[in-house]
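note to self — DONT lose this again. spent like an hour looking for the file last time. sequence + predicted structure for the chain T wanted, 393 res
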Amino acid sequence: MISLLKRKSIIAFIAICFIGAFLPMLLDGHPADTVGAPFARPIFWNSNLPALVEMDISTKETSFEWRKNPPAIFSLSGTVKANPTSEVKIVWHTPNKDFVLATLIGQSLYWINMDGRDMIFKQALNLPLIGKSVEALFPSKGKYSITIDGAENCELKLYLPGQRQGLLGTDQRGRDVFRMLIYGIRTSLIVGISATIIACILGLGFGLIAGYTGGLTDALIMRTVDILLSIPTLPILMVLAGIWGKGLWQLVLILSIFSWMGTARSVRSLVLTVRESPWVEGLKALGAKKSYILRRHLVPETAPILLANIALGVPGVILSEAALAFLGLSDPRLISWGRMLHEAHAFGAFTEGAWWLLLPPGIGIVILCLIFMDTGRYLEELIDPRLGSGKNV
């Protein structure tokens, strides 16, 4: 046990579990929240690209220096209070040109909600309808200011999402990729471990019955196993996911149904070698029931094999879940690494060159699978030293 805890893969698995369980509690907001511009690059990528700028405007004139490329989005929202008889002008001053964003009159309270991507906004400023308005609103580096003439009070927020945002950038909806990656750990672990445990329980039950009972029951169970192993798994999973729904636990049930056959074969092989042993014959001679022999003696004998099968089965389930999610057969409200890859592919991450949407979930799936594969291999070597590097043979 101590040697197992010292293994690097186990340490990495514990660290990933800790991150997936507790780090989301420290992150503000929900992974579905929009935090920046679409396809914003990671914060460490190209310092010439602007980061997110938020500015409260509560005075009649607010100025600032801009020393980077234009932001991704120009947004101004909030309220302006004024005398109904006074004319209010909101003016955007650039080093090259002034833009009258709005001319207001006739009310005491105005709600402002301007977005540079809006066609009406572009048309009001005589900007090209096809193109980015921020290129005209931020034509060069220099001093910029916004004035509100004729207002008594204003509470506005200038929101300028940049082309860099967060540790791993943003996706096509402006969501934080790092936050989604952390939340995806939960889904992968829940689906992988739960489906594998259910599959191992099913495989244990059928393997014990087939191996100990023998005869027609054994033949029937094993032929069923052969049939299920011969069926292409992915098309069947796609059909079942479409029929039963795309929820988390429906997905776990679907994956577990097609993952128990290998465990059943392994358990049956072990039981076949043990059921004719002298100590089992002695128990039968003493009048022990089959259920007692299976529960008290044969199940503990299969425990090492079950542990190894669980560790080796989780990567296959994780990859199957990722494949189904990538094909769009998972709950769209469920954040998973496969779903991240599906949305990245569907919304043009390849054409945008948004590598930060593809590499993190892909690398996460690979690392998690390698951790379980290494752990499963180590458990197999403990069970059968002949599987080692040769020094124990």
